[in-house]
Design a protein that fits this description.
With about 70 residues, the chain is an alpha+beta fold. The protein has one domain. It has two helices and four strands; from the N terminus they run H-E-E-E-H-E. It has a two-stranded antiparallel ribbon with strand order 1-3. Strands 2-4 form a two-stranded parallel ribbon. The radius of gyration is 14 Å and the shape is elongated. The protein starts with a helix and ends in a 5-residue tail after the last strand. The structure holds zinc ion. The site of zinc ion has 6 residues, from loops.
Length: about 70
């Protein structure tokens, strides 16, 4: 059953366009998350840009970046 739910989880992630994946600059001081990896707010990121789940970003205390609309 565990395997099945894992597969379903991945399928949902792939097929769902409104996924809850957001992008953050993987720096210790980054406080924002971004809907797009090409956001202006990420353009000066000197660390790696990584994708994480929006719920995790919020749990880490991150807020939506000011450039997003
Ligand atoms: Zn942004």
């Amino acid at each position: 059953m565990k395997t099945l739910s894992l597969i379903l989880f991945f399928l949902a992630n792939i097929t769902c366009k409104d996924s809850t994946t957001v992008y953050i600059c993987n720096s210790p001081g980054a406080k924002k998350y971004h809907n797009s990896p090409k956001c202006r707010g990420l353009s000066n990121c000197t660390y790696r840009i990584i994708s994480i789940d929006i719920e995790k970003a919020k749990k880490d205390g991150k807020t939506l970046c000011g450039w997003e609309k």
